[in-house]
């Protein structure tokens, strides 16, 4: 009995030390995971990260926003078509969008402002991260402003072609026969510039995070393209509208 006690005490001591060390390690590990989670911004896609996004460090505790719970409820309504009708409509929509083309020659015919308003309103129906609607559409008709935009874009595009994007990009584009000269930016009667808002402003002037802002704006652009395409077809023999990706 006397002989066993010190051994038992030693074993118990080793066990206690081991248990404490493990507990310490897992607390440290958990702290590390929590820190990493706080630093990561899962709503920013790895592919889309650029230096315009809102950085975690820029948000401080004072930026915390209360939930907006008093938002108006807009009832959902939809029509369910019979199967045959669904097939017909989806086929027709595909055929319509399959006619869309990126063109680099543009008509100078005027477009009714109502059409421009409608296609932008349609784009604004897009889904967005946490319903933040992180987009701004700017319509430019003024000749001088259009020309200044052309100059800025051509200057940037020249850098793209000559150094920024690299030889492979220039080689891949050769089949499209494009270059940095974009005279259609002067010709088009209307330019629609689309901006992503990397953050919003709450009523109290504090910053609001715009989750997945680039993806949300990209979806809105796709819907804008579809709206322009359907408009072009509806306006048979009418003004020619197209979408230019700057
Ligand atoms: C993100 C994106 C960037 C593009 N950039 C340019 C561009 O800088 N210049 C250009 O002439 N076309 C540009 N395009 C148009 C593509 O070249 C075009 O979509 C592609 O060749 C397929 O042709 P389609 O649009 O007629 O189907 C771009 C398209 C996308 C989606």
TrEMBL record:
UniProt superkingdom: Eukaryota
Region of interest (Disordered), residue spans: 30-68
Provenance organism: Suricata suricatta
Annotated InterPro entries: Nitroreductase (IPR029479), Nitroreductase-like (IPR000415), Nitroreductase/BluB (IPR050627)
GO terms assigned for molecular function: iodotyrosine deiodinase activity
Pfam families on file: Nitroreductase (PF00881)
Biased composition (Basic and acidic residues): 30-58
Taxonomic lineage of the native organism: Eukaryota, Metazoa, Chordata, Craniata, Vertebrata
Cofactor(s) of this protein: FMN
Entry's Gene Ontology BP terms: thyroid hormone metabolic process; tyrosine metabolic process
Full protein name: Iodotyrosine deiodinase 1
Keyword entries, A-Z: Flavoprotein, FMN, Oxidoreductase, Signal
